[in-house]
From TrEMBL:
Species annotation: Haloarcula amylolytica JCM 13557
Name of the molecule in the record: Hydroxypyruvate reductase
Residues annotated as domain MOFRL-associated: 17-250
UniProt keywords, alphabetically: Pyruvate
Organism classification: Archaea, Methanobacteriati, Methanobacteriota, Stenosarchaea group, Halobacteria
Signal sequence segment: none
Top-level taxonomic group: Archaea
InterPro entries, sorted: GK-like_C_sf, GK_N_sf, MOFRL, MOFRL_assoc_dom, MOFRL_protein
Keyword Chaperone: no
Residues covered by the MOFRL domain: 334-433
GO cellular component: cytoplasm
SUPFAM superfamilies xref list: GckA/TtuD-like
A molecular function (GO) term: glycerate kinase activity
């Protein structure tokens, strides 16, 4: 899975870190996650704890999008067989499907082909009636891949807004509060358009805390955010929306545009959403691998958030405490954490992403022998084409240059030069970031 593993595995601690990363990503594989939750016996389809009698439906369709949607769709096609009527999904990498049409889209910024494919999906959903079962697949990356500008908004409006929010270090929950109110499908609007069809949401979480309304901006989930909340995001982070976006949000705030459907809306009467995989799935698998290697694993949290370079520091401090005192875990040990950190871009837009900033910041402040690794499970850290990085204090040979790179949001350039980046290519899944800190036995 890790394409440059041979170059990175310089010692036993690094081997363990890389093993943990590979196990974490493999455990979140969408086909595995789907088959663990979705099954069929005769005409009875079971998703989680809910059963659907396929004989009650004239049409069964699969629609949706996201980075991990390919694997979910393949598994659903296999499970449903000839009961599946068709559908359409938007993915990041081309896949072979038998019944469901697939379109390749762009991420992290929406594109013309994203919009074109999403419009077709909306037409399928609009045609659904009370005799239709809609399997709505949603995974990380769907907020960009499923794009349908609302009202008079243009694709350029969505691109500019998304870019400003991502560059401004805005947390994903607040980014998606804005996206929901600039879209014709997000924020519960798939449910509104599909009614009175039966909708079974099949979701893989890429958000901290698994808030279903935040995953992919919640197309099948009630929305508690408002147009005023979306406007407040720009004010809070001192960001300026494009004029058309401001006009649209203000029109919604003033009641000239309908709000997204709130909890309790009747459009959700025949909608059930099922979470089939998340960051905890990945962390549990990494912990098992660490234990098998003779290291005591400690899962600290699956809710990491905040500025990546700052989040790294307390985790490194825990590793140092463990080495010095055996608290909170006795070395040899592996600390594990997951979530989604952010980067506020203040430099000229160098290379890298949150995981690379996490690793470089951690290596710079660390006073010990721990190996620090962090990756985005989708294989793409921020806007870079690497998954993350792995390092320890000894490999940061030029500390002044490393600090300058970190300050310039160019951690990726420095880590690449010292051959510390982790390269996987797109993994086909997306359950947030995974951080691994391997603490060797101090007596060795």
């Amino acid at each position: 899975m890790i394409q440059n593993r041979a170059a990175l595995a310089a010692n036993a601690a690094r081997e363990v870190a890389l093993d943990c990363i590979e196990a974490a990503v493999a455990a979140a594989a969408p086909e595995v996650a789907t088959r663990s939750v979705v099954s069929r016996v005769g005409e009875t389809l079971t998703v989680g704890e809910t059963t659907y009698d396929l004989g009650n439906y004239t049409d069964v369709v699969v629609v949706g999008g996201g980075k991990a949607t390919s694997g979910v769709t393949r598994a659903l096609e296999s499970i449903l067989g000839d009961s599946l009527s068709g559908g359409h999904v938007v993915v990041e990498q081309a896949i072979d499907t038998e019944t469901v049409r697939s379109s390749v889209g762009d991420h992290p910024l929406p594109s013309d082909r994203n919009v074109e494919a999403t419009i077709d999906i909306l037409e399928i959903v609009d045609d659904a009636d009370e005799d239709t079962l809609v399997l709505f697949v949603l995974t990380g990356g769907a907020s960009a891949l499923l794009s349908a500008p609302a009202g008079d908004l243009t694709l350029d409006d969505l691109q500019t807004t998304t870019d400003r929010l991502l560059s401004g270090g805005v947390p994903i929950e607040e980014i998606n509060a804005v996206r929901k109110h600039l879209s014709d499908l997000k924020g519960g609007q798939i449910a509104r358009r599909a009614a009175p069809a039966t909708v079974a949401g099949v979701l893989i979480s890429d958000v901290v805390g698994n808030d279903l309304s935040t995953i992919g901006s919640g197309p099948s989930v009630p929305d508690e955010a408002t147009y005023e909340d979306a406007l407040d995001v720009f004010a809070q982070y001192d960001l300026t929306p494009p004029p058309a976006v401001r006009d649209h949000l203000e029109a919604g705030r003033d009641g000239r545009i309908s709000e997204t459907p709130f909890p309790g809306d009747s459009v959700f009467d025949r909608v059930t959403n099922h979470l089939i995989g998340d960051n905890a799935t990945a962390l549990d698998a990494a912990a098992a691998v660490a234990r098998e290697a003779g290291y005591e694993p400690l899962v600290l949290t699956s809710r990491l958030r905040g500025e990546a370079r700052e989040v790294a520091k307390p985790l490194v401090a825990i590793a140092e405490e463990a080495t010095a005192t055996g608290t909170p875990v006795e070395p040899p040990a592996v600390l594990l954490a997951g979530g989604e950190t952010t980067v506020t871009v203040t430099g000229d837009g160098g290379q890298g992403g949150p995981n690379q900033e996490f690793v470089l910041s951690g290596a710079l402040v660390h006073d010990g022998d721990a190996v620090i690794a962090a990756v985005d499970t989708d294989g793409e850290d921020g806007s870079s084409d690497v998954a993350g990085a792995i390092a320890d204090a000894t490999v940061v040979d030029d500390r002044e240059r490393a600090r300058d790179a970190l300050l310039a949001n160019d951690a990726g350039s420095y880590l690449s030069q010292i051959e510390a980046t982790v390269e996987t290519g797109p993994t086909g899944t997306n359950v947030n970031d995974v951080a691994v800190l391997v603490i060797p036995d101090p007596s060795e």
